[in-house]
Amino acid sequence: MQQAFLYVEDDSLSREIMKFIMEAGMGVSKLAIFEDSSDFMNRLKALPDRPDVILLDIHVRPHNGFEMLKMLQADAEYAKCRIIALTASVMNEEVEQLRISGFNGAIAKPLSVQTFPGLLKRVIAGEDVWYIA
Q1: Separation of CA 73 from chain center
Q2: Which of 7, 33, 62, 111 has the most neighbouring CB atoms within 10 Å?
Q3: Residue 73 phi/psi, 5° resolution?
Q4: CA dist 23 → 19, 31, 45, 71, 124 (Å)
Q5: Within 13 Å and on the Cβ side, how many CA atoms surround 91?
Q6: To which H or E segment does residue 57 belong?
Q7: Could you tell me what percentage of the chain is helix, strand and coil, using 3-state DSSP and rounding each to the nearest 5?
C-alpha cells in the first residue's frame, strides 16, 4: 500500500524541497501540500486519501502546529495518524513542548535531502523520530 502524506508549510522554498525529496527522491505519489492552515480540518477531510503521516510546520498561520495537532487529536479519524513537527525552532524547551503536546517526532529545518528519506521511513515504520541537528 502506498502511504499518503500531508505537509502544511507556509514557506514556498520548503514546500518545493519537500515535493522534490518525496516525489523525485522517494517515489511518493500521494503527497498533499497546504500552504497555510486556514479551514484546516475541512480541507484535510476533503483530500482524496487520508494521510498516514502528517508533517506540520509549527509557525504557520492562522493555526500554528500545536493548534492543528490538537484538532487532529480530537478527531477519531485522524487520532492515529503519525504527526511530525517540522521546525527551525529547535531549542531544548521548544522540543520538550513538542514532546509534551503529543507529536510523534520533530525534524529540524532546513530539510536535508540526504537524511530526510531515512527519517521518514522510520516514521512510517512507527518509530517516534526526534531529529534535531
Answers
A1: 14
A2: 7
A3: -65, -30
A4: 6, 8, 22, 27, 16
A5: 2
A6: strand 53-57
A7: 35, 20, 45
